[in-house]
Amino acid sequence: YLVSALGKSNQQVVLLDNTGRSYSLPAHTLPSARGQGEPLTGRLNPTSGSNFITCLLGEDDEQYLLCTDAGYGFIGTLSDMQSKNKAGKNLITLPTNAEILPPARVINPEESYIAAVSNEGRLLVFPAADLPQMARGKGNKMISIPTARAASREELMISAVAFGPEDTLLVHSGKRHLNLKLNDLEHYRGERGRRGNKLPRGFQNVDRIEVAK
After folding, report:
1. Could you give phi then psi for residue 34, rounded to 5 degrees?
2. Given this model, what pLDDT does residue 171 score?
3. How, if at all, do strands 104-106 and 63-67 pair?
4. Helix or strand or coil: residue 66?
């Protein structure tokens, strides 16, 4: 099991591979009920050696945070990710040796915040409106990671989410987690592209961050 998406049968399923290409298929044309389904390569022509990493389903105007672990990202809509081409379209431009992070839903960019955390335990929170809305590309720097260290995979952005002012940010580190409301995040708020500040001792070895409504 890899991933699932909740939506309607009259919507387009958007598929994303690890090279940054996106593809789409009408949801109602996929097999229903139980079983393994059918190979996506029977419908699509992904690049040789690439792997599908996630799928998205929803209304065309729904927005998602699209980013790489090199610390770059942008906000795109589901309609931007769709392609009638079997070979898909270039959606996310990957810096050297970078990998794509799971897309995160952005409900309202004008009122939301983005939290980005690195493998060194640095957390940065900034307004989602500071990140560009684009149809494709590399995006802008979200959290500062030296290019050489990102390319050698020494320092990486390991997780990034968008959250609203009333949401709680959950920072997971091993079996422990930290609950942070917006008021608790003052120490980590800053301009987009900054280094961020270190999380408390014991939570610097972050596995992921997620949003609790």
Report:
1. -90, 175
2. 97
3. antiparallel
4. strand
